C-alpha cells in the first residue's frame, strides 16, 4: 500500500510554520489521525486511545510546548512524560509533525526489531522520549520529580506535561503523586487526563468506577479544568489560560474524549483498544477524514 | 580486645550514613535526600535541617519515593532515596526497575533494615529477598556496607559513579572492620583477614562475625581462614571469588535468604569458572522465621561467630 499521509501529500499541504489558529490545528489533527490509521493498517497499535487524545496531542506538541526538535535536551524546554505509555504512536506522530523526525520514519520503523518506535515509549533508542513508560502509574510521579527538579534549578519558565489515561487513575501511585505535587506546590506541572471512559477490559464505570475525577483532584489541592478534549478550540483556550509555571498549584486538565474519536466504527467500541485495520477500512476512514478536512 | 579490631566499640551504620549524607550535601549541591516518612529511622534529619530546600518527604508512599527520585535524577540531581529494604525492594520494586534501572539513572536507593537486622519488628520489616530482587535488575549495582568507614566511602564513591546503586545496610551495630588507610572501590572486594586454609565471603553487618570466627579459628585450631568483605554484591569481584575457591573451601555468610543473595552470585562465578570447592551458604534457610532479636536469629541460622566457626571447620575437615 502506498504511503499517503507523509509530509509531501499535495492535497493536504503540510505547513512547516507553527500552526496557531484553530483551523490550522484542526488540519494537523486530521493529518495525525490519518497517519495513525495508515500505521494501523500495518501494525497493531493502541488506536482507540491514540485517537481519543489526538486533538490534545496536536495542540500540545504543535502549539503549546516550548521545544526545540534540534536539541531535545534544551534546558529551557517543556518536558512531556507519556504516563499512558501505550499512546506512543500518537506521541510519535505529533513529535514528527513538530519536526523531531519524519513521519515516514515512524511508519517505516514502528515495531521493527531494534528500531526507535514501539508499542510503548522507550528512551533507550529514541532521544525524544523523556522517560520510558508503559507500566501505568509511573510517568506521573516521575513528572512530579522533574517539576521539583526544575524548581531546584530555578527554572521558572518550563513546564512538565504528563499525559495519563482515566483507567490509569486506578493505580495507587497516581494518588501518591497527586498528593505530593500539591504539597510541593508544583504549579509548573500540568496533568492531562484522557477520559475516554474505557480501559482494556471495557467501560471503566462497569469495572471499577472512578466517579468524579475533578472532585478528587480538587480535594487533593489541584486546579482543575474539565473540557471537551476533542474540541481543538476548547483545548487551545484551556492551554492558553494555564497558570504560569511559577504559580503554586498544579493543574489537572480533565479531557472528556471519545475513544476511537474520528472513526465511527471505532468510537466507544471496546475492541478497538488495540488493533489493526484492513485497507478497506482505511479507505472508509480516509474518505471521512478528507471530507472533514475539506469542510469550509 | 582482639588484635587489630576494637570489637567492643560498636557503630550504627544508619547513623553514619545519615550524618555523612549531610556532609556530602555540603560539598555537592546535586545531592538531594528523599524520604518516605522514615527520616528518623534512616537518621538523615541533619541533612533535612541543613538543606531543607534539597530535602523531600513524600510521606508513606514508597512507589512515589522512587519514581519522584527518578524524576529528580532526570533533571541532573543525585537523589538519595531512603526507606527500609523490604519497602524499597518490594513495595517499590517495579519503580526501582522501570523508573530507575531501565533508564540507568543516578538514584541512590539507601535501604536500612537489611536482612533480619530489624529483628523484633518481624518479617514485614526484614529485607531477606532484596539482593535477589535488585541483582536481577539490569544496570543495578548492589552494595552492602559492613562498617562506618566503608559506609562513608561508599557514599563518597557513589557521587562519581554512573548508574543506579542499591545500598543496603543492616541496623545491628558493628565494630570497625576497616582501618584509617582504607581505600574503597566499588566492585573490588576487600580481604580483611588473610588465610589460605579456607575462605569466608560475606557482606554487611555479618562481616564482623566472620572476622571473629576467623580470629578464633586461628587461635584455637591454627588454621588460617580468609575473610573477604564482598561489599559489592553486583557486579561481583570475580577474581576475589576465584582466589577464594582456590583455598578449597568457600563459606558465604549473608543476612539474606540463602536463595538469591551473595551466595548465589558467588556460586555462579565458581560454576562459570569451572572450579570445584567445598561450598556452603549461611543465611536465612528459605523460611519466614518467627520474630526474634537479630542476635538470636543470627545464632539460630549460623551467621554468628560460633556458627560460622563451626560450619567452616566442619567443611575444612572434609
Task: Provide key terms for this protein.
heterodimer; A: 296 residues; alpha/beta; Rossmann fold; 5-stranded parallel sheet; two-stranded antiparallel ribbon; 7 strands; 11% strand; globular; disordered N terminus; B: 318 residues; 7-stranded mixed sheet; 20% strand
Task: Summarize this structure briefly.
Chain A has 296 residues and is an alpha/beta fold.
Q: Can you walk through the features of this model?
A:
The complex is a heterodimer of chains A (296) and B (318). Chain A is an alpha/beta fold and 296 residues long. Chain A contains 10 helices and 7 strands. In chain A, 38% of the residues lie in helices and 11% in strands. Chain A has a 5-stranded parallel β-sheet with strand order 1-2-3-7-6, with helices on both faces. In chain A, helix 1 crosses helix 4 and helix 6 packs parallel to helix 7. Mean pLDDT of chain A is 92; it is low at 1-16. Chain B has a 7-stranded mixed β-sheet, with helices on both faces. In chain B, strands 9-11-10-13-14 form a 5-stranded mixed β-sheet, sandwiched between helices. Chain B has a two-stranded antiparallel sheet with strand order 1-8. Helices cover 38% and strands 20% of the residues of chain B. Chain B is built from 12 helices and 14 strands. Chain B is globular. The chains are: A alpha/beta (296), B alpha/beta (318). At the A-B interface, helix 6 and helix 7 of A face helix 3 and helix 5 of B.
Strand proportion of chain A, as a percent range, falls in: 5-15%
Determine the structural class of chain B based on helices, strands and strand pairing.
alpha/beta
Show unreliable segments of chain A: 1-16
What is the total tally of β strands of chain A? Answer: 7
> Whole-number radius of gyration of chain A?
18 Å
Amino acid at each position: 500500500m502506498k504511503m499517503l499521509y507523509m509530509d509531501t501529500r499535495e492535497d493536504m499541504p503540510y505547513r512547516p510554520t507553527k500552526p496557531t489558529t484553530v483551523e490550522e490545528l484542526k488540519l494537523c489533527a486530521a493529518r495525525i489521525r490519518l497517519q495513525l490509521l495508515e500505521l494501523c493498517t500495518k501494525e497493531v497499535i493502541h488506536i482507540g486511545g491514540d485517537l481519543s487524545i489526538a486533538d490534545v496531542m496536536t495542540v500540545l506538541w504543535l502549539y503549546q510546548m516550548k521545544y526545540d526538535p534540534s536539541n531535545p535536551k534544551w534546558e529551557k524546554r517543556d518536558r512531556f512524560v507519556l504516563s499512558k505509555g501505550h499512546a506512543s504512536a500518537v506521541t510519535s506522530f505529533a513529535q514528527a509533525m513538530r519536526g523531531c523526525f519524519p513521519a515516514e520514519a515512524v511508519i517505516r520503523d514502528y515495531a521493527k526489531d531494534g528500531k526507535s518506535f514501539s508499542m510503548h515509549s522507550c528512551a533507550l533508542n529514541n532521544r525524544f522520549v523523556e522517560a520510558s513508560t508503559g507500566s501505568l502509574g509511573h510517568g506521573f510521579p516521575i513528572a512530579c520529580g522533574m517539576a521539583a527538579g526544575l524548581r531546584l534549578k530555578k527554572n521558572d519558565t518550563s513546564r512538565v506535561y504528563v499525559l495519563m489515561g482515566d483507567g490509569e487513575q486506578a493505580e495507587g501511585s497516581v494518588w501518591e503523586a497527586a498528593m505530593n505535587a500539591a504539597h510541593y506546590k508544583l504549579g509548573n506541572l500540568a496533568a492531562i487526563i484522557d477520559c475516554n471512559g474505557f480501559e482494556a477490559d471495557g467501560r471503566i464505570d462497569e469495572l471499577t468506577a472512578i466517579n468524579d475525577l475533578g472532585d478528587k483532584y480538587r480535594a487533593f489541592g489541584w486546579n482543575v479544568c474539565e473540557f471537551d478534549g476533542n474540541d481543538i478550540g476548547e483545548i487551545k483556550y484551556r492551554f492558553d489560560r494555564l497558570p504560569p509555571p511559577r504559580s503554586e498549584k498544579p493543574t489537572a486538565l480533565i479531557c472528556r474524549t471519545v475513544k476511537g474519536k474520528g472513526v465511527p466504527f471505532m468510537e466507544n467500541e471496546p475492541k478497538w483498544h488495540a488493533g489493526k485495520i484492513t485497507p478497506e477500512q482505511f479507505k472508509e476512514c480516509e474518505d471521512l477524514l478528507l471530507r472533514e478536512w475539506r469542510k469550509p | 580486645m582482639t588484635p587489630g579490631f576494637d570489637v567492643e566499640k560498636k557503630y550504627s551504620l544508619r547513623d553514619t550514613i545519615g550524618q555523612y549524607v549531610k556532609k556530602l550535601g555540603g560539598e555537592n549541591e546535586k545531592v538531594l535526600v528523599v524520604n518516605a516518612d522514615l527520616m528518623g529511622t534512616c537518621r538523615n534529619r541533619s541533612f533535612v535541617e541543613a538543606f531543607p530546600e534539597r530535602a523531600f518527604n513524600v510521606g508513606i508512599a514508597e512507589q512515589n519515593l522512587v519514581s519522584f527520585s527518578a524524576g529528580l535524577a532526570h533533571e541532573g540531581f543525585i537523589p538519595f532515596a531512603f526507606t527500609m529494604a523490604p519497602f524499597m525492594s518490594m513495595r517499590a520494586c517495579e519503580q526501582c526497575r522501570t523508573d530507575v534501572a531501565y533508564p540507568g539513572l543516578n538514584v541512590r536507593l539507601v535501604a536500612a533494615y537489611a536482612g533480619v537486622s530489624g529483628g523484633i519488628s518481624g518479617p514485614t520489616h526484614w529485607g531477606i529477598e532484596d539482593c535477589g530482587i535488585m541483582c536481577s535488575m539490569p544496570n543495578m549495582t548492589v552494595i552492602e556496607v559492613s562498617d562506618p568507614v566503608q559506609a562513608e566511602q561508599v557514599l563518597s564513591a557513589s557521587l562519581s559513579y554512573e548508574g543506579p546503586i542499591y545500598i543496603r545496610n543492616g541496623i545491628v551495630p558493628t565494630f570497625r572492620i576497616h582501618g584509617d588507610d582504607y581505600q574503597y572501590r566499588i566492585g573490588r572486594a576487600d580481604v580483611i583477614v588473610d588465610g589460605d586454609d579456607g575462605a569466608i565471603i560475606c557482606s554487611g553487618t555479618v562481616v564482623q562475625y566472620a572476622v571473629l570466627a576467623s580470629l578464633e579459628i586461628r587461635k584455637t585450631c591454627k588454621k588460617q581462614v580468609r575473610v573477604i568483605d564482598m561489599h559489592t554484591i553486583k557486579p561481583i569481584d570475580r577474581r576475589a571469588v576465584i582466589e577464594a575457591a582456590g583455598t578449597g573451601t568457600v563459606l558465604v555468610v549473608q543476612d539474606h535468604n540463602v536463595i538469591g543473595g551473595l551466595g548465589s552470585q558467588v556460586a555462579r562465578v565458581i560454576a562459570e569458572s569451572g572450579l570445584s570447592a567445598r561450598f556452603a551458604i549461611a543465611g536465612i534457610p528459605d523460611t519466614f522465621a518467627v520474630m526474634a532479636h537479630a542476635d538470636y536469629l543470627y545464632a539460630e541460622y549460623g551467621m554468628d561467630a560460633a556458627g560460622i566457626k563451626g560450619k567452616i571447620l566442619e567443611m575444612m575437615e572434609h
